[in-house]
Design a protein that fits this description.
mainly alpha, 41% helix
């Protein structure tokens, strides 16, 4: 963990075995799987909020409630890869009984990743909502349907 976070309420789980992955996180590296560690209980439930604090401080979780920030090399695009990492956090919150936070993820998916025709987009860009490569996203549709079914239980 970077020294700046030692002794704080922030926890950064290393994304590569050496732990030297700051360049990966800051560069155009579409890996934002911190929620995989929480959803699969690789880290303790007590550390979930510490990891959330890290992704908020680093801008990996955005103000709009999306969890999959995808840095862009020139800094001009503010891209969120929707449903993938959001689903892990949804599962985490659902398992922990934090239903309001799980529902908020679903609300954000519908608000920012769904077209008027009910297709899920793979990405959402804060500064260019028409930036939608590889759309529609069938796996995104499936993840949203799973979230909705989980909430219906």
């Amino acid at each position: 963990m970077p020294k700046k976070y030692e002794g704080s309420d922030i926890l950064r789980v290393p994304l590569c075995p050496s732990g030297d992955d700051e360049k990966l996180i800051k560069g155009f590296y579409p890996y934002f799987g911190f929620g995989r560690f929480t959803a699969n209980q690789i880290v303790s439930d007590e550390d979930v909020d510490r990891i959330l604090n890290y992704i908020k401080v680093e801008g990996i979780k955005g103000e709009k409630g999306l969890y999959g920030h995808m840095p862009y090399p020139d800094g001009n695009m503010h891209i969120w890869y929707t449903t993938n990492s959001d689903y892990d956090w949804f599962l985490t919150f659902k398992r922990l009984g934090r239903r309001t936070e799980a529902e908020d993820i679903v609300r954000c998916q519908i608000a920012y990743s769904m077209t008027d025709e009910y297709y899920m987009l793979e990405r959402y860009a804060d500064n260019d909502p028409y930036y939608v490569p590889w759309s529609p996203n069938a796996s995104g549709n499936g993840r949203l349907l799973n979230m909705l079914l989980d909430l219906a239980e």
